[in-house]
Structures are given as structure tokens and as C-alpha cells.
Amino acid sequence: MSSIREIAKLAGVSPASVSIYLNDKKTSRVGAATKQRIDQAVKDLHYHKNIFASTLSLQESRIIGIIIPSKMPLFSNEYTNSLLSGVQSQLSNEGYSLLFFPSDARTSDEIVEQQIQRSTGCDGYILFSTGFCTQDHIEKNIMELQKTDKPFVTLNIPEMEQARLQVLIRDLEICSGTKYLLEKGHRNIALMLGRDGGMHARKLYHDHRSLLEHANVAFDPDTVVFGDYQAQRAYEQAKNLLTSFPHLTALNCMSDIMAAGAILAAKDMGLRIPEDISIMGRNNSLHARLSTPAITTIDLHIEDAGKSAAHLLLAAIDGSAVSQKILIPGTLIERDTVSTIA
Amino acid sequence: MSSIREIAKLAGVSPASVSIYLNDKKTSRVGAATKQRIDQAVKDLHYHKNIFASTLSLQESRIIGIIIPSKMPLFSNEYTNSLLSGVQSQLSNEGYSLLFFPSDARTSDEIVEQQIQRSTGCDGYILFSTGFCTQDHIEKNIMELQKTDKPFVTLNIPEMEQARLQVLIRDLEICSGTKYLLEKGHRNIALMLGRDGGMHARKLYHDHRSLLEHANVAFDPDTVVFGDYQAQRAYEQAKNLLTSFPHLTALNCMSDIMAAGAILAAKDMGLRIPEDISIMGRNNSLHARLSTPAITTIDLHIEDAGKSAAHLLLAAIDGSAVSQKILIPGTLIERDTVSTIA
DNA sequence: TTGTAGGCGTTATCAA
DNA sequence: TTGATAACGCCTACAA
What we know:
The structure is a homodimer.
Chain A: H1 4-11, H2 15-23, H3 32-45, H4 51-58, E1 63-67, H5 78-93, E2 97-100, H6 108-117, E3 124-128, H7 135-147, E4 152-155, E5 165-169, H8 176-183, E6 189-193, H9 199-214, E7 224-226, H10 231-244, E8 250-253, H11 256-268, E9 278-280, H12 286-290, E10 297-299, H13 302-317, E11 324-328, E12 331-333
Parallel strand pairs in A: 1-2, 1-3, 3-4, 4-5, 5-11, 6-7, 6-8, 8-9
Antiparallel strand pairs in A: 10-12
Helix pairs in contact in A: 1-2, 1-3, 5-13, 6-7, 10-11
The first copy, chain A, binds a DNA duplex through helix 2 and helix 4.
């Protein structure tokens, strides 16, 4: 591992000159001939600057820590991946790297604590929420992050007093699938949610219920089920719902993948979609487009949310943003799984 | 940003004692009373060890660099995500972090060069291949990686002399979808590939062709198309193929998503699957399972491949692996999109 | 135009 | 049981 000193020796100059030249190729601080010798030495010794040493010296790493408080394997969830994709593309544009930390903890608050332990030196953080995060844990996570004295933005986490920089995906806070189904004349709507205890699922539950009540529709708690975001589970739950509540005319699913599972269930029961049963997804993922029938869904603009978060964080790092909330609204995508009821 | 020195001062001990204690809580090198004072100081000052400084001192970062030579946004491709998921879960178990680098370069060789530039200090690398990588570029990438003097493993890259540590997904080298279709009696098989120029696509092309020739089936180059791995493109290409070559009985697609696009095309043309046309996918992704009809596909065990790569890299880092090739075989998953031809 | 010296935070060696 | 000191590789202020 060749160091700047070896380059200096080989080129017959001082380490300072090498450093200055390599950080600013067109500096006038170093002569043309010297520059050439340095270039040659760099080539000969396969020199690359050690980011750890330079971070230590500059007190700036150009690395962003990604905090995802989940015990599931990373990169296995379409939703989080889209968020990450947005974050990465934006950060990459500005020359920032992304760091993902290990953790062997069980609960989401311990995971975050461990990850922060291994993260000192990052220039900032993005905190994701997951189905595992309870309100308590998130508050703890935010406090933990605040102690680092580095900027951070919360992404896709329900509104929180404590967080200064937030990007919110609005449709996770209002249950607009239910709203749409009501407009289409549906009155018997089941709701299929993600993990119980997750903040999003809870919020959706609450809003679903009040939307129904505002529309003077009786609310039956048994028509709301919590799952695990997986198609298989949704398949089983949809079957149960459709047999237990035959008067149901619509299933509002928290994700397209759950909707796809529900569609399979309905088909297997000999029901036609949308004539016999309407099914809403959420996300506008590829599954929604490729399904037959194509799934009516809500585009959450997840990637944009990721980009916004990255953008906001960079602004905070260079000091131009102090406190800000960005709301990403959803867009209804009407396809073939919802019928109108007279 | 409190340092070990401030902790030492507050606790009334030397930095050395603090360091030793924090790295080994039950050391006998530090007295019990001292330990307590250190713990208190750590709490009071929100101290976390600076990984950059510690890396510099230990010459070990416990960070693995992930090199993905693509200009597409990361985390937006199901295939790569599964690979990454395997890599991350395995590495996380052993306490390693993952680092993703930025790049604004255009070609895959420049991307890798830039990324390596920003990576010195990582303990090792995993090099991914992408549809953008030509043979030339990959060779250059490997050479570049070798110069770092750190271990690296190539993942999902066709066999390469130069690389010492490799994990190969076997089915990307033999076109087993075509083999299966031949066994099922098909003789008129079109092949729908990913990006032209990509090494995998080329290899598949070659093997498809020789499988046909071995079976004494005439090969028509016009029945092979290159795409972009996207469903939309596959949809259009499938329509073209099915109109231009009405005698076709099967479409072998390089990915499930392309297969899903092809299925949509066939349906739109009024063809029944698999009675009128058989369609093979590859990957055994969620799309294959959720599609109607469910797609017959080849499970590539992508996540396992990622885990193997991580495992191999860790073995190389601790010196127990020097040179090794791991082959991940594919498994045929028979579902509902391929018929038998008498 | 160039070199010297000190510091970034942590760790390891050696002496007390 | 503890403390002083040098080293990891880079950067920058200051001196030449």
C-alpha cells in the first residue's frame, strides 16, 4: 500500500507537493516538470489516496451512512430498494459514497445504536423506517442520531417533532385507496395491511376507519388484517376475507405485491376481477403493470422521495438547510382491477 | 465530535487506557474503578469511536467495497439486488460494512477506475458484472483491482483466467432453458436476450445455437433478439417475433420480467399459453410466481451466489483462501407456461 | 516553487 | 495497573 511519502521520494519532491498537486491538478504551486514526475510515480506505484487518512485530516469523508432498522436482509424489499435507488443516484451525482452497516441486534432500536457505533466519521445519515419500527423505537433512533451532531434526514417516517429534516411520503399517511374505492361506490371494503406494530400500517388503519365513518359506512374491525407484505400471506388472508365476508366488494391492499397475492386468491375462488371483486394496490411497481388484470394502484413516487432526501441532506451538510419537511404526494393510476358500483 | 483524549481527560486516565478498555471490556489492564469512570465519560460525551482513525491505525477497516460497473441507478435491478442481498447478509453476520461508490463516468472500465480511486482502505472487494460489461472492460477491471493488493472476488462474471476468486452462476453459461424446451419436443424456439455486447447474453446466444445444432434443428439468427431486460421492450419484441415467425412454438427469455412482457404480448395477440405458445423465464423471481399463468423458469439461486462470494472474500481476507471457483448450478422450476409437443 | 512540522483520532510498544 | 510516545497516511500553515 504505497503512501504519499513513497510517491514523494520516488519523484524527488516533498509529500506536501504531491498532496497539493493530486488534489488540484492545475495548481501553480507545483512546477510542470515536477508534476510529470509525480504522475509517473503515481502510475509506477499504483498509488491511490487513502480515504481514511484523508477523512481524518479533512474531517470530511464524503460518505453518507444509511440506517435501516430492519432485521430482514437488505436489498430484498422492492419498496426500500426504490427509495435507496433514488438516494444513491442523487448522492452519486455529488460524489458521495454510501455506507451500509452490519448489525446482529434483534430490535430496531438496538440495530440503530449498533450501526451508529460503527459510523462515526460519516458526513450525514439517512434514516429509513421499516415495518419493524414502533413509534418508541423511532424516537429513540432519532435521539441517538442527534447525539452524533451530524445532519440526518428521516425518510418515509411519519411526521416527528424531533426530526429537523424529513421527507414524507404522503400516501402512507392518508389512506387514499379507500377514498378512491368509496368514490367508485364501494361500501364494503376490506383493508390488507403490512406488519402490525409498524407505524405506517397503524396510520393507514386509522385513516381507513375515519374515511369510512365520514362516509357513513359501518366499520368492522375484522375486515382489517395485518400481514407481512408477502404475496403468500396476502393470498391466504384474501381467501379468508372473501369467504368470511361474502358481501365484500373491494380489497384495499397496502402494496402491489399483496394485491397480486389477493388477485391469485380471488381467481382461485372463481371470482372475476373487477366484476365480482375490486382490488387496489399501492406503489405502482412493476408487478402492478405486469399483472393480468393490470392493477389499479397509487404511484408513491418512491424514487423521488429518495432523491429528495439525498438532496436535503446535502443541503444540510453544506449548511444551507436547517429545518425542512418535504411532502411527496401520491398519484392515482387507474387500471383494470376496480369497478364502479352504481 | 468527542475524541478518546477528551474521554481520558474527563475520566482522569490516559488515552491508552481508554482505548484498551473500550476494545476489551474485560481487560485486566484497567482497574474496576477506572472502568466505571470511563463508562460514565463515554455516556456523558456521547462518545463513539471514529472508524476512520481506527482503520488508519489498525490497517483494517472491516469495510468491503462493492464495485458495480453500471451507469444505471443502483438498486433498481432485481437480479443485482438479490446478489447484493446475499452478499450483505453474509458480510453483516461477520460484522462487515458495505461501501458503494459514486461515479460519473460513462463506460464500465472508467466507472471501475473511479470507484477504486475512492476505495483505498477497504479490506476487500466484490466485483459485479452487468449487461454493460464487455470482455475487454472486465479484464481491465480485474487488472485494476489486482493493483490494489487487496483480495477481491468476481461475482457472476464469466470465467476469467486472471481472477483468483470467482463465483459463477452456471446457468448463465449454459442455455438450459433451450435444453429443456428441446426435451419437451419444441423445435421452433426463439431466444430473447438482454443487452447486446453484454458477456452473458453473448454466451447464451452461443450455447443456444449449439444446443439447436446438436439437436439437428436449423438455426435462424433472426429468431434471436437483444433487448434491455425491460418488460416493455420484451413485449414489443415478442409481438414482432410471433408475427414474423408464426411457426414458433416457444420463446426462451433471459429473465422472468422479459417473460412477463412476452406473456402480455401473446395474450394481446389472442394466443393461449402454453397451448399456442410456450414461454420460459429465468430467475425464479416473484414475477414468475405471481404471473398468470405462473412462469416455468430456472432458479439461479442468486442470493446463494451472493453469500458464497461474501464467504469466499472473508476467507481470502483472513488468508485461508487463495484461489477458488465456486459454481452455482440452476434448478428447473416447472410451472404452467411450457407445453409438451408430441 | 518547494520543504518542514504538527495535527486529525486511534492503537501498540515500551517503560514506569 | 498505568502513562508517554510513536505510528498509521494525509493535509495545511508556515517557513524557506
